[in-house]
Automatic annotation (TrEMBL):
PANTHER family: QUEUOSINE PRECURSOR TRANSPORTER, QUEUOSINE PRECURSOR TRANSPORTER-RELATED
Transmembrane annotation, as ranges: 7-29, 41-59, 71-87, 123-149, 155-174, 181-202
InterPro entries: YhhQ (IPR003744)
Organism: Rhizobium wuzhouense
Domain of life: Bacteria
Pfam families associated with the record: Vut_1
The protein's name in its UniProt record: Probable queuosine precursor transporter
Keywords, comma-separated and alphabetical: Cell inner membrane, Cell membrane, Membrane, Transmembrane, Transmembrane helix, Transport
Length: 212
């Protein structure tokens, strides 16, 4: 079972990630990548948010999916509270929905792959969870079809060159989603380093090994 000490530790880590991401999302990433102006596409929050998948995966590895879901719900509650305080109701709904569904999918994928090569479960869980997380957040936040949740953002839905450099055009939120997903994939690969380093320290509990 997940002891109170570990539950508090993992929940605190998840809350720190959520709080940091909600704070850092206010700051655009300054710089360019080729001809792409990163400040038009990304915030620093895009780099901290994917760490939530690492926290979820470490909890899942050590204590199993039930414990991981409890930690995710703590992060969900923290995220919703912050979104309600700092963002519009539509963004709050999108953020909470994306976080919860993406993390729960990550848990399910991880659990199915936990007995395969050590990197497959965390990487595939993060990738598949991030796909759904990105689609849900940006669609609910900006797609006109979800305008019943809240007012549409005219700037987000207006057409612009994809990623600011391509000849083809699309609503700006599409470019934001593409850039955000790219960062999630990059961080997902990088997070394999701390995950691998902690594998010998955070070993699965006996009941997890028996039921996995």
């Amino acid at each position: 079972m997940l002891s109170a000490r570990y539950f508090i530790a993992y929940s605190l880590l998840m809350t720190i990630v959520v709080v940091a991401s909600n704070f850092l999302v206010q700051f655009p990433l300054q710089g360019t990548l080729g001809n792409i102006n990163l400040a038009d596409l990304l915030t620093f929050g895009a780099f901290t948010y994917p760490v939530a998948f690492l926290v979820t995966d470490l909890t899942n590895r050590q204590f199993g999916p039930t414990a991981a879901r409890k930690v995710v719900f703590v992060g969900f509650i923290a995220g919703v509270i912050l979104s309600v305080l700092l963002a519009t109701p539509r963004i709050a709904v999108a953020s909470g929905s994306a976080f919860l569904v993406g993390q729960l999918l990550d848990i399910s994928v991880f659990n199915r792959l936990r007995r395969q090569s050590w990197w497959k479960a965390p990487l595939m869980g993060s990738v598949i969870g991030s796909v759904l997380d990105t689609v849900i957040f940006f669609s609910l936040s900006f797609a006109p079809v979800f305008g019943f949740i809240g007012p549409n953002d005219d700037f987000a839905i207006s057409a612009a060159p994809i990623l600011g450099v391509m000849s083809a055009e699309a609503p700006r939120w599409i470019s934001w989603a593409m850039a955000d997903f790219s960062v999630k994939m990059l961080i997902g690969v990088v997070m394999l380093l701390p995950y691998g380093a902690l594998m010998s320290v955070l070993r699965p509990m006996p009941q997890v090994e028996r039921t996995a």
